[in-house]
Design a protein that fits this description.
Layout: E1 5-7, E2 25-28, E3 31-37, H1 52-68, E4 77-84, H2 90-98, E5 107-112, E6 122-129
Parallel strand pairs: 4-5
Antiparallel strand pairs: 1-2, 2-3, 3-6, 4-6
Helix pairs in contact: 1-2
């Protein structure tokens, strides 16, 4: 049985500082669970300017930076959870989201919420699989 390993990254890794008591990722066997990323700039820890699509792009970059620490890409994602504060941007988000992948899309859940940390409009977390060597 594999033991769980937790990982905390920082701006030097292209990952924003934590805003609470959690790991950026947990690995258990061949699965990597990535904490929800906010649309914050890794260098400043501040929310990026702009609307949903600009924030979603920063979230994509932040998650990609965590995946990269494990030698993974978006195409290794098995399940993605998206949290939106306003579903008026759902279709635009979906169009941008599809471009995050070059292979088949993973399973996904999208949840409408009344608020997110740091005043974000979007947060995304995911579970990725480590391919067999």
């Amino acid at each position: 049985m594999s033991r769980k390993e937790t990982f905390v990254f920082g701006p030097q890794d292209g990952v924003p500082p934590r805003v609470g008591p959690f790991a950026h990722a947990t690995r258990f066997g061949d699965l990597v669970f990535v904490t929800g990323q906010m649309p914050t700039d890794p260098a400043t820890g501040e929310l990026v300017p702009g609307g949903l699509l600009e924030q979603a792009e920063q979230v994509r970059r932040n998650l990609a930076a965590v995946l990269d620490r494990f030698g993974l890409t978006w195409d290794d994602a098995l399940h993605v959870r998206v949290y939106l504060t306003d579903f008026d941007g759902f279709e635009g988000f979906n169009a941008a989201y599809e471009r995050w992948f070059t292979g088949p899309l993973p399973a996904r859940t999208t949840v409408g919420v009344t608020g997110l940390a740091v005043g974000a409009l979007v947060e995304v977390d995911l579970v990725a699989g480590v391919p067999a060597s």
